[in-house]
C-alpha cells in the first residue's frame, strides 16, 4: 500500500509539473507586417508648435484620415484610399506604392514617400518609441514653411 501511494504521488508530481513556456518576443518586422502584410491607419498626429501641441488628425475629414498604409514583409508598401474618398470621381484607390526600410536599433522605419494631409514626405524616417500587435507610435520630422517640427504619430491596426 505504501509503495502504491509513493507511486501515485510520483505520477501526480511528474504529470502535474509543466515546463515553463517561454514567450517568444516578436521581431519589429513581425509586429509591423504580421506573416505577410498588415494594414495600419494614422489615428493621432501631434505636432508641437512652440508651446502649443496640435493634433493634425482631429480636424480632418474621414476621407483623409481613413487612408490605409499596408506594410508588406518584403519591405514594400501601399498607401490606399480608405472607405471614403474626398472626390470619388478623381481619387484613385492606390495612392502610392513604394518601399520602406527597417532598422532594429534604434527601432526605425524609413518610408520612400508618404503622402498625408496633402503633404508629401520624402525618405521620412520614423523612430518607433513603442510597438505592439495593434499599435505603433513614434516620431518624425515635418517641414512646413521652412521650419522643421517634431511630430508624434500613432498608427493603429485596421481589421
Structure description:
It is a single chain. This protein is an alpha+beta fold. Helix content is about 15%, strand content about 50%. The protein is built from three helices and nine strands, in the order H-H-E-E-H-E-E-E-E-E-E-E. It has helices at about 1-15, 30-35, 60-65, and strands at about 35-50, 50-55, 70, 75-80, 95-105, 110-115, 120-130, 135-145, 145-155. The chain has an eight-stranded antiparallel β-barrel. Strand 5 and strand 6 (about 110-115) form a beta hairpin. The longest helix has 15 residues, at about 1-15. It is globular, with a radius of gyration of 23 Å. The termini are far apart.
Keywords:
single chain; 159 residues; 8-stranded antiparallel barrel; 3 helices; 9 strands; 50% strand
Amino acid at each position: 500500500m505504501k509503495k502504491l501511494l509513493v507511486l501515485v504521488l510520483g505520477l501526480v508530481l511528474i504529470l502535474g509539473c509543466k515546463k515553463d513556456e517561454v514567450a517568444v518576443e516578436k521581431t519589429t518586422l513581425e509586429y509591423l507586417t504580421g506573416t505577410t502584410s498588415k494594414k495600419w491607419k494614422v489615428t493621432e498626429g501631434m505636432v508641437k508648435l512652440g508651446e502649443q501641441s496640435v493634433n493634425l488628425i482631429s480636424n480632418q475629414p474621414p476621407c483623409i484620415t481613413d487612408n490605409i498604409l499596408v506594410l508588406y514583409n518584403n519591405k514594400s508598401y501601399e498607401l490606399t484610399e480608405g472607405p471614403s474618398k474626398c472626390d470619388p470621381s478623381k481619387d484613385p484607390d492606390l495612392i502610392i506604392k513604394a518601399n520602406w526600410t527597417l532598422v532594429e536599433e534604434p527601432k526605425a522605419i524609413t518610408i520612400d514617400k508618404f503622402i498625408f494631409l496633402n503633404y508629401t514626405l520624402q525618405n521620412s524616417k520614423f523612430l518607433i518609441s513603442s510597438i505592439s500587435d495593434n499599435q505603433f507610435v513614434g516620431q518624425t520630422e515635418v517641414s512646413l514653411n521652412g521650419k522643421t517640427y517634431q511630430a508624434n504619430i500613432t498608427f493603429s491596426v485596421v481589421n
